[in-house]
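Team,

Forwarding the record for the chain on the shared tracking sheet. I've put the sequence and predicted structure together so nobody has to dig through attachments.
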Amino acid sequence: MRTIFWAGIPALACVAAPLAAQIVPPPSSGHDIVVQGQRARPSNWREAETQHVIVLSDGPEREVTQIAHNLERLYFLLSVLLNRTDRTDDTTKLRVTLIGDAAEFQAMDLRNMRWQQGPFNEAFDIRRYYDPRQDGAVLATTRIDQRVVLQQGVSVANALQGLQLPTPGGPAGGAGQIGQSGLFGLQSSADLIRPINEESVPLTAEGMIYAGFAQHYLTTFFPAAYPRWYLDGFGQLFSTLVVRGETTMEYGRAPAGTTAVLHRFGNFALTDVFNDTYLTRPANKTRWTPVHAWMLTHFLFFSPTRNGQFRQYLKAVASGTPSAEAAAVFGDSDALAKELRSYFYAKKPFERMTYPAEQAGMPIVHRLSLGEAAFVKGRLELGSRVEATTGPALKQRDTWLRRLRTDAAKFPTDEGAQVLLAEAECRSGNGAECHAAADRALVISPGSSVGLMWSGVAMTQQAKGLSGSERTAMLRQARSTIARANRADTEASPPLLAYYRSFADVGEKAPAIAIDGLTKALIAVPNAPATRLALGTELASRGIVPLARSTLMPVARGGYDSPERASAIAVLDTLPRP
């Protein structure tokens, strides 16, 4: 059964293999590593690392261990279903960060610039952050379970509404009224007061993590122009992952509260989904929910009569056919809707898979030092701050950057703190400040690849303000420093990107070796829109049209908007039609 689900999805992740093959592998080293220094004080943050994922959490060790282990299991499950268990994985590990409760997570104001969901009804204000960054994707969410309140109940406060009670601190005989409670929408599942007759459905933190990981897996190893409803539905298929013992997994079960949600919000017109009309509806006026996305995807996956059509539909969308036109493969939309309604009332299938326990090894867990933990949130926030250019967001960035400088000064001997500050300064256009922070990192660790890289990037930025021989000399020094960073860590993609940008950012034509490095960087993070745009543009300029098109399509026509989309569309439109 499994092989028919994805057999027709095009595998577009294999980009420019001939170029990548020219990358020289790292030389072996016979030098011993000498570690000096004092043991840093431990924090309450832990990092659990497996073969394919890194999970950070300030929660209990048991919790972070379980989530990391289950994500490794999910990786294996997806690899079986997508027929890539025998493939090598040269991608950068996904970093998953679990942040306290919902209020703490929301206070970070992590704006999703390259990933979106829904838009779902306002009750489903799912708090998750995902950023396919050029140096490796990051995923973050709260680690506290929540609940979606579909209908508010009658709380004790509601029942006593209007009852006159003494006002604390007021005069004798004073009175006050108890206010309303039991709000519609997303609430913490840990709330101590639960209104009577409240109708709600659980939204588990693990489910949000599994859904996000499944979407990451799909867009990483099979990057294509998918419709957003399918990306949402694909994630929901695996959000209900169940691990039984050490050798059994189940996926595809209905999310808890499915019947209640569908009864509450009703049917949703398939034509509005396939023509993308639903994407324009505000959250307070749409009836589209994650359960609807799950329902449609689950039906098309498991339907023996519709699965083949579904594969054809995804192929057409991936090639650039508008979703509404591609949906013609399903035939009469009323007949499809009738089948879907019948499916709602039917007993729905799911799959159970047994596997060798050694295929998903236990994670290695260690506690972060206070210095390392101090910048966990800062590294996440960086992606939402440094790309601001105007208005209130620019003021917020500058405020955040000043705070980061203060925090980094508190840890003058912490390489990670200085490197993070260097990145923030460089990406905010502050070349001199970036250079200073990178130099501090290199004092701490003279051979640091990332320190050398940001030093080279800073020199590239500073060279823009020079002319003549001074500019040429500065750029030569910048590229030499970036090359040293590459030699220090030949598997790291940031130095490869920095070397390419040392040409592109100053208006010079990048040499073949820089394009090779750009290709290798995309292999490391296949769903990074910025890397795809850069490589696709270079391929287009060299007349390598088919490869340029397949590289740009996920950015230009995919389900997620990004700052790179408009440029990708512009380049794509210059290419001859296939």
